Amino acid sequence: MKKNVKNLNFLLLFFMIAYSAFGLLMILSASSVAAVLRYKVSSNYFFLRQLIFLLGGYAAGLVIINVPTKNYRYFSKILMYGMIPILGLVLFFGKIAGGAKGWYKVGSINVQPLEFMKVILVIYMAVYYNKIANKKKINVITLLWPIILALITFGLVAMQPDLGGACIIAFITALIFFSVPFGKKYKKGIVKFGIIILALVVIVMGIFGKSLMQSYQASRFNFLNPCSRYSEDTGYQVCNGYIAIHNGGLSGVGLGNSTQKYLYLPEAHTDFIFAIICEELGLIFGIVIVAGYFIMLFIILNIAKEADNLRNSILAYGVFAYLLAHILINLLGVLGLVPLTGVPLPFLSYGGSYCLNVIISLFIVQRINIENKQAKQRKKIENL
Fold this sequence. Notes:
Helices cover 70% and strands 3% of the residues.
């Protein structure tokens, strides 16, 4: 246990703890008004719930750093095959929130299986491709089996409907698949086939999109010039996000002094937490937050490159893709550059299922860092 702690990447751990603490502070600030006026609970309600999820995530992390990644082969298949029907059943027994039927109500807690599936998918693909890497002959079905499972997952998530979640599943799958160092002769054909399918989807959605989607879904694709569509839901949210960022200027109006959190910005403590950060602490501080994210991503990439086996490399690249997708989709949505899809920002947005899985995924990266250092130490001993 002590040896493993010594082999952690302390810079990454610093960012994890710093962003967790800062996220708690901003959730308390952004949610206090809505908690009382809209949800009729105490002003620190969301703060306390997020704190519980954070503590649970770090407790799980203490276990994860002591479990060798080679042991993931014992449960990766069970988790993957078990989570697919759970995602399917949520369409019938789930709770609707934000227009998507993607949550199970468990007592006073809403559990979102999709967030667990994102991390499970990374683990499954890492174990699977590591297992088949040394086979002399790999047929197309063997190579594509994780992709088939990912497509099923994509379809189930899209049916909720959760556009942002489906896009993240696709992004994680694509990045991992094309980073695998074998099956090149099949990949060219798959790319061509994928381009054709994507083109057909774009054409079909362009012609029949409005008739196939509910009005609130179709409105999300009309995301440009939000303030000219202030009466529409998506225009209203993004425009108030702009107002929050404008109010803050470069230095902010002061912690806790946001005006947009007074129910002007409906999702101030979740999707639009970045707008509140910029309003209260300023655009410069917001840029620092974004820079911190990319430092974390850079650290994860370095750990992936140093991995001494394919499994650990894929695990780290998968976590990189998972976090990058959330950061880009959230920030670009807040800035009105892509449609709003309800994707949370790592550590800063309120959300129990996502909070748990972000911390778990980063402790998996920490375990990989431990194994990287152990491998280097073994090589030094062998060279003596």
